[in-house]
Amino acid sequence: MEGTDDNTKHQARLVIAPTKTALGTTMSNLIIQSCHRALRDSDTFTIALSGGSLPSFLQGLPDAFANADKDPQWDKWHVLLADERCVVSSHEDSNLGAIRTHFTNSVGIPPSQIYGIDETLLGSSEDVAASYEENVVKYLLEKKKSTTTTTATDEDDGKIDCVLLGFGPDGHTCSLFPNHKLLSEQTRLVASIDDSPKPPPSRITLTLPFLNQYCRQIIFCGAGASKRPIVHAIFTNVEEVLDNNAVEHNDAVLGAKVASVELSEPAPYPCGMVRPQGGKDDDTLIWLVDEDA
Question: How many CB atoms are closer than 10 A to CB 56?
Fold first, then answer.
């Protein structure tokens, strides 16, 4: 599998929130923890965000920071896109547009630190992807490396701090779809796709090599019964693990069931192929779902 060591058993932390509302609260608390850790180790917090239903969960993030009595230091945030449709940001299909509406328009992140696609290149999705890789992703990786202090571990040096992803009922994540040739991409950090099975067909997406090699923490988030088959397929013996090993965790996931789970081999869906390397703690890969999922 691309970007992974096939001899390694891949673990994740599975967090099951009692309700969809609690899922949003828990997600905010996990982001607060990630932000606090990042700003302890450097002067930037880099976060990649997906579209779909995820931006709506971010509406509660400013209040969550206030309730936790934490300063988000919005001026140190850098927001990039996990994937984007090849449309202008004012289009109803734009992930950046949804992120602005539900989140960034109401907080103090400098607009220059919210990274959309180059709309002058929309005639070619390949050009859009190449530009985003060179001018956004590589730029932020280098910036993170140059600003990280000696308190960070070598494994965390020069990585995007937090990636927030959704997953579909078909098991896709970002714009990485089942049985698509992009799942075999070996070198590109951002790739284009012009035959997406979901409209619109032209998009750009972070790739598995990027997700598995250059991310400090990845948080999957999903709610609803349509996600249940995916969750049960990508983990090994998930029901048995939850019955025997689920425990309440720290304040970030208070009231949720939490268990360490093992990912199935081979990964049955693209979302199960996301397995970030190098993490020493149990929060490198987190799957956050509600009871229905």
Answer: 13
pLDDT, tens digit, for every residue of 67-116?
Answer: 999 999 999 999 999 999 999 999 999 999 999 999 999 999 999 999 99
Question: Residue 36: which residues within 8 A CB-CB, separation 6 or more?
Answer: 70
Q: Which helix (H) or strand (E) holds 146?
A: helix 138-147
Burial class of residue 125 (count of CB atoms within 10 Å of its CB; 0-12, 13-18, 19+)? buried
Chain-centroid distance of CA 236 in Å reads 22
* 235, two tokens: 């983990």
Distance CA 9, CA 76 (A): 35
Which residues does residue 290 pair with via DSSP β-bridges, in sequence order? Answer: 17
CB within 8 A of 133, min separation 6: which ones?
188, 189, 190
Residue 144 CA to chain centroid, in angstroms? 17
Tell me, what amino acid is at 40?
A: R
The separation between the first and the last C-alpha atoms of the chain, rounded to the nearest angstrom, is 26
How many whole angstroms separate alpha carbon 93 and alpha carbon 100?
13
The residue behind tokens 């750009």 is: 204
Sign of CA dihedral 218, 165, 77, 141: positive
d(CA 182, CA 44): 30
In this structure, are residues 218 and 212 in contact, taking their beta carbons and an 8 Å threshold? no
Strand 218-222 to 162-165 pairing: parallel
What does the pLDDT look like over 155-211, one tens digit per residue? 667 899 999 999 999 999 999 999 999 999 999 999 999 999 999 999 999 999 999
pTM score, two decimals? 0.92
Residue 69 burial by Cβ neighbours in a 10 Å radius (0-12, 13-18, 19+):
exposed
